Amino acid sequence: MSFDTDLTADVSDELFWDPKLDSTAIAVSAADGTITMRGTVGSLREKREAKKAAERVFGVISVDNQLQVRLMNDDKRADSELRGDVLQALMLDSIVPKTVDAKVDEGFVTLTGTANWQYERDEAEFVASNIVGALDVIDEIGLEFPTPNGSDVKESIKKAYKRNAALDADDLRISTDSGTVTVQGTVSSWSEHDEAIDAAWAAPGVTSVRDDLMVAY
Q1: Is 55:83 a contact under the CB 8 Å cutoff?
Q2: At 119, is the pLDDT very low, low, confident or very high (cuts 50, 70, 90)?
Q3: Range name among 67-71, 73-77, 163-167, 181-185 with the lowest pLDDT average
Q4: What is the reported pLDDT for 148?
Q5: Rounded CA gap, 212 and 183, in Å?
Q6: Please, what is the average pLDDT of the chain?
Q7: Mind giving me the DSSP string for the chain?
Q8: Which pLDDT does position 150 carry in this prediction?
Q9: CA 118 to CA 108: how far, in whole Å?
Q10: Using 50, 70 and 90 to split pLDDT, how confident is the model at 202?
Q11: What is the pLDDT at residue 204?
Q12: pLDDT tens for each residue of 104-118
C-alpha cells in the first residue's frame, strides 16, 4: 500500500476515534502528505475539531478543510437571534474585550472591533464558533498596540522559544517588520508548529504573524 493510502486510512480512523466527531459524512483523501477533507458536519465546532484530529496523525503535512456545516432544521437560527447569542457569549467571557462586536449574515458570523492581543481575538473566535447555528466565523478584529522596536520583539520571541521544552529553537528563524513577525524553519509535529506560532503572537506589539514553518517527519 502507498504512503498516501495508509495516511488516508489513519486519518479516517482518527476521525472515527474522536468522540467529538460524527465522521459518517466525511470523505478523506491524501496527496504527498496533504490531507483533504470533504463532506458535511453538524456544527462549526465539529469542522474545527476534524482539522485538529487530522493534524494529530503522524505524516500529515497540511490539511485542506473543505467540510461544510449543514445544520439540522432545529439548529437553524434567524440572524438576529444568532447575533444576540453570540454577543451574549462574548460579553460573558472575561477574556474578550468589550470593544469586540459581531454581525451575522445568513448564519455567517463576522467579528469586528479591536483588541490588544491575539489571544483575545482567538478567544472571541472560539466563543462565537461554539454558538449553535453559526456556519462560519470571519475574524476581522483589529489589533491595536504601539509599534514596538523590531529587535526587542525578535529577542523576546527567541527567549520564549528557548524556554519552551517542546521547541527546538535552533531550527527556527524569526524576522520582524513593523509589528509583523515571520517565523521560518522546520518543526517535527503540528503541536510543535502551534507552540511556535502561539509564542510569536504572545510578544507585545505583534499585529500579524506570517507562518512559513514546515512540518517535517
Answers
A1: no
A2: very high
A3: 73-77
A4: 60
A5: 6
A6: 91
A7: --HHHHHHHHHHHHHHH-TT--GGGEEEEEETTEEEEEEEESSHHHHHHHHHHHHTSTT--EEEE--EE---GGG---HHHHHHHHHHHHHH-TTS-TTEEEEEETTEEEEEEEESSHHHHHHHHHHHHTSTT--EEEE-PEE--PPPPHHHHHHHHHHHHHH-TT--GGGEEEEEETTEEEEEEEESSHHHHHHHHHHHHTSTT--EEEEEEEE--
A8: 62
A9: 21
A10: confident
A11: 81
A12: 999 999 999 999 889
Which residues 6+ apart lie within 8 Å of 198 measured at CB? none
pLDDT of residue 203: 85
Give the whole-angstrom CA distance, residue 151 versus residue 160: 14
How far is it, in rounded angstroms, from Cα 57 to Cα 6?
11
Q: How far apart are CA 114 and CA 126, in angstroms?
A: 16
Please choose, from the candidates 161, 159, 150, the residue with its C-alpha nearest in 3D space to the C-alpha of residue 184.
161
List, for residues 46-57, the tens digit of each pLDDT value: 999 999 999 999
> Which residues have C-beta within 8 Å of that of residue 93, sequence separation ≥ 6?
123, 124, 127
List, in sequence order, every residue forming a beta bridge with 176; answer none if it has no partner: 181
Exposure string of 24-52, with b = 16+ CB inside 10 Å and e = fewer, is eebebbbeeeebbbeebbbbbbbbbbbbe
C-alpha cell at 69: 456545516
Rg (CA), the chain: 19
